[in-house]
Amino acid sequence: MKKFTFWNNLLGWIIFLTATLVYLLTLEPTTSLWDCGEFIATSYKLEVSHPPGAPFFMLIARFFTLFDSDPSHAAKMVNTFSAVASGLTIMFLFWTITHLARKILDKSEEISLSNSIAILGSGLVGAMAYAFSDSFWFSAVEGEVYATSSLFTAVTFWAILKWENIADERHANRWIILIAYLMGLSIGVHLLNLLAVPVIVLVYYYVIRSNYDIYYSHNNSETSQRLEENMDTLKKAVELLKEAVHELEEHDSEHDYITRRGLKEEINTFLEKERIEERDRILSVGGIK
What we know:
single chain; mainly alpha; 2 domains; 10 helices; about 75% helix
């Protein structure tokens, strides 16, 4: 498990460096068509772009322009921001693919060598195929909001998978809080990230439903077992008391027979009442009644 985690993390960072390097080498030196010129100008001056706006994108893009004091290089620095964001997107996409591939191939704690190669290989092929696809590569080398929006989408979906791994632990919901925070930030870039909400809700629903079914099944079986044990104990107690009453009847005098018989009936009535109350108590504790 530790070896797989190490190679999974290492290969993810290698993929990030590879994709980012390719994007930087093929970077647009200045503005491209469509909205790129507007985003570059508004980012450099921290102005307002076309509705609905992209304030968070402007802030981060402006931060990248601070690394070069020459205003003529502002477009290149904003494009660099897109390249870095796209490289991070590919890295999180790789980790998402390996997580899903592992659920399909190997669910055990110790992953075999062949399965490790298959899982890491599937992540590598899937991530690199997307990295060099036509549409994504175009947005990765220009000053547009799509690269940053893709990063938020990749991180939020990766985060819900991380939550899935520890959903039954105490502090698992910190990943849900992180997702909600990232969703809020992503609205300041582009509304595309909201498309991930239905998928996140489905993952959350099925994980919670699965954990509930497991808990209910386990709790129900334990309650039934406790009920059977208590019923056996009560039966043994009733038999012993009946034997004791029978012994008393045999050795007592004739005039005490009626008294002993009445005592026997009272004991049987009391035990029957206790048995019913014990059964109802166990059923109510187990959630059956």
